[in-house]
Amino acid sequence: MEWFRIDSTDDLVSPSLLVYPDRIRKNIELMIEIAGGTENLRPHIKTHKIEELVRIQQSYGIYKFKCATISEAELLGICEAEDVLIAMQPVGSQLKRYIELLKKYPKTKFSTLVDNEETLSQLVFLINQENKKVRIWLDINNGMNRTGIIPGEKAKELFLRMQENDAVISSGFHVYDGHIHIANEKHRKQKCDHDFQSVIDLKSELKNEGVNVNTIVAGGSITFPIHAQRAGVEVSPGTPVLWDAGYGNRYEDLNFLPAATLFTRVVSKPTEKTVCLDLGHKSVASEMAFPRVQFLGNIDISQLDQHEEHLVIEDTNEFEIGDGLYALPIHICPTVTKYGKVHVVENNKIRENWKVVARDHQLKI
């Protein structure tokens, strides 16, 4: 039987998200191999948000993690992860929530980012009230233009302020280059190295002033193998733990295995040329252009239209109403958050369910 199929779908609700632990483990092993061990590996959990997956990673000796939200950080605190970077600058109510996080989970060494003096001052003010210290990374924009401070004089001044403040433990630089989407491995490396040069230059300027930047957290799922070759750099891939068709089809040099599939059913055949599946916007990431998924089982079907609960595909005279299909999402990360739980498949059987704990914006804090 093909790896993705389960032996009986009679009681399986559609659509459902299925995950495959044997493939997940192989992906974790490959991440560790590429990173040269666990010391410089800091996987992002935003792709899966699942406690059992965190604990599988911990079983491999992974002790550093990266996340995006307070709820993801709280999940890692529940798992007693040793070292957690929240890679989104806290603002507004998140500032107080971050301080509460430090107090509630003292076994975990939390850190976060800043890219401006105002946020730094607010964090310092709040942490001083607790008579504690706060671990902070300088968030650098080296081309993504989403967050971060552009390397230069202002970035240097902000880092020096972090260094000089007694309430701050200055952890280093955080650099996410998610703007790099080049399929060719050689050209991707050239672009990555070019854009990272400004970070190296900033580090050198600080060193000339007697300030060392001990660690840089850099890269995402596509560039982390490149950054893994640099000394003093931790890498933070996220998607490889589950992988998806979008990355798998584009980046052939990254040999991760698809470890999550969608199960969907034919619910209607409205015309002679179309079939409708129960796989709408609410069930699979839909922020990109078609196709939304890649069907498995040697099925190549044009995807024509999508609505909240429906995906309309071309009729190839292969399907009857009620038939089940398996598909890889093009983008796994926002697909996972659409499900409260995932079904765990081993040896073509559903063995248990895992709750997607941190899909909620708030757990307890």
TrEMBL record:
Keyword terms of this UniProt record: Lyase
Annotated D-serine dehydratase-like domain residues: 259-346
Pfam families named in the record: Ala_racemase_N, D-ser_dehydrat
InterPro entries, A to Z: Ala_racemase_N, D-amino_acid_metab_enzyme, D-ser_dehydrat-like_dom, D-ser_dehydrat-like_sf, PLP-binding_barrel
Family: Belongs to the DSD1 family.
Protein known as: D-TA family PLP-dependent enzyme
Organism for this UniProt entry: Urechidicola vernalis
